[in-house]
Amino acid sequence: MDGTLRVYAVSLGCPKNRVDTERILGGLGAAYQPVDHPEEAQVLVVNTCGFLQAAVEESLETIMELAQVAAGQRERPLLVVTGCLVARYGSQVLANELPEADVVVDIAGQQGLSQRILDHFGLGLATEGRLVSTAPGFAYLKIAEGCDNRCRFCTIPAIRGPLRSRPLAEVIAEARQCLAAGRQELVLVAQDLTAYGRDLGTSEGLPALIEALVRLPGLQWLRLMYLYPSGLSERFLAFLRDVGPPVLPYFDVPFQHAHPEVLAAMGRPFQAQDPRRVVERIRRFFPEAVLRTALIVGYPGETEAHFTALEAFVAEMELTHVGVFAFSAEEGTPAARLPGQVPRRIRLQRRQRLMRLQRPISRHWLARWKGQELDILVDRPSPEWPGLFEGRAWFQAPEVDGLTYVSGPGVQAGRMVRAAVDSVHDYDLVALAHEEDEEE
After folding, report:
1. pTM, whole model, 2 decimals?
2. Do 57 and 181 share a domain, yes or no?
3. CB distance 162 to 150 below 8 Å
4. Cβ-proximal residues to 371 (8 Å cutoff; 6+ apart), any chain
5. Does 239 reside within a domain?
6. Are residues 233 and 337 in the same domain?
7. Is position 100 within any domain?
8. Could you tell me if residue 125 is inside a domain?
C-alpha cells in the first residue's frame, strides 16, 4: 500500500453523531483519503442512528446497500458499522444479524476504532484530532455525552448513557482549532446543553464555557442548540443578555408538548417547563429572540382536547421554527407500554395540521426581513443554479432551519457577506450581496 486509505463514510442522524464520525476519520491521520463514491473505497464506514424506528430502518438499509457494493468489488472493502444502532441493540447481536459487516463496534468502542482500521491495513498509529466535515463557515462543538433526563418516550439514555461533560479545557482547545481553520460559527450541541458541568460538580458549567468561548478570536456567531426548558432560568438568561454577541439570541428549546397532562405523561415536570412561561421569560430578556422547538403529536393518551391546546399554543406563541414529529412507540421505552396508544392515521393527521398552521407563521415572520440587510454566512454553491449560493442568516441554524439563497459579487463558501433580502418564501429567503464585498 502507498500509506493512504480511500474511505467512504456515511454519518446518519444528528450533529452529535456527525462529530463522532469526524473524530473517527480524524484519527486516521494522514492515511485518510476521502472518496465520493463507495465503489472507490477501501473502507466503508457507517455511523448509524437508532433513535427512532425510522432511523433504525434507514441505518439497516444503508448498511445493506454498502454491503452490496462491497460484495461486487474485486478487492472487497472493509465494512465498518458503529453508532447508536449498535449501542441500542448490542454489538454481538448486530454482528450476528449483519454478517456482511467486518467490524461492528458500539459508541464506547469508537475510541479505538481508527486504530483498528489502520491495523487491518498494516498502517501506523492513530492520531488525536477531528476532521470537520461541515460547510466551511461553521463547526459543531459537542460539549457533553449522554443524558440524565428520563423522558418516557426517549431511547437516548439507554443508548448514550448518563451525562458525561467534556472538560472545559478540552472543549476550548477544539474550539480554537476550528476557528483557526476559518470557521466563523460554532454550534454547541449536547443531549441537554443546560446540564453541562453538573456531573463535574458545578452548576456554572455552561456559563463558564460560554465566557471562555466568546473571548476566542475569529468567533462571529455562537449558537446554542438543545436547551432544556427547565434550564432557562432568569439568572441564565440575564447572563446571556449581558454577554451579548457573539452569542446569538437563538433558542432551540424542545418543548415536546404544551398541555400539562401530556407533559406529565411524558415525564417532563410541567411547573419547571410550562412552555408559555418559558417563551415569555425568554422574550422578556430577548425581545428579538428566535425560538425553535420540537413537538410530538399523538403521544399515548393525547385527546383531541390536548391536541387543540397544542394548536392554540403554536398559534399564540408564533415560534419561528417548529419541527413536528408523530409519536413513535420505541421498543424499550415506558411510553411504548402506555395505554391509550393513538392510531397512526390520527398521529399523521395531527402532524399535518400543525405543519399547516406553522407555515404561514413562518412566512409572516420572515416577511419582516424583506428589503433589510443581513449578514449571511455562505455555506455552499447551489447544486441547481450556477452563481447562486446557499447560506444562512443568524436566525437560521445549519441543517434544520430554512436557507438564505444569496448571489452577487464576492459570494463564496465560508465567507460572511452583507446582503439585502430580495424575496421571501415559506421557510427561505433570497438575497443579493453588496458589490463592496468583492473588494474586501
Report:
1. 0.93
2. no
3. no
4. 420, 421
5. yes
6. yes
7. yes
8. no
Q: What total of structural domains would you count in the chain?
A: 3
- Whether 132 is in a domain gets the answer no
Measure the CA–CA gap between 81 and 102, rounded to whole angstroms: 8
- In the block, cell 481553520 appears at 181
Write out the residue range of the structural domain in which residue 114 sits: 5-120
For β-strands 185-189 and 138-142, DSSP reports them as: parallel
* CA 11/CA 80 separation, integer angstroms: 12
Residue-by-residue pLDDT tens, the chain, 440 positions: 677 999 999 999 999 999 999 999 999 999 999 999 999 999 999 999 988 889 999 999 999 999 999 888 888 999 999 999 999 999 898 889 999 999 999 998 999 999 999 999 999 889 988 999 999 999 999 999 999 988 999 988 888 999 999 999 999 999 999 999 999 999 999 999 999 999 988 767 999 999 999 999 999 999 999 999 989 999 999 999 999 999 999 999 999 999 999 999 999 876 667 899 999 999 999 999 999 999 999 999 999 999 999 999 999 999 999 999 999 999 889 999 999 999 999 999 999 999 999 999 999 999 999 999 999 999 999 988 888 999 999 999 999 999 999 999 889 999 999 999 999 998 999 999 986 544 34
Which amino acid is residue 358, in one-letter code?
Answer: Q
Residue at a domain's end among 366, 391, 423: 366
CA dist., res. 245 & res. 215, Å (int)? 11
CA distance 384 to 436: 26
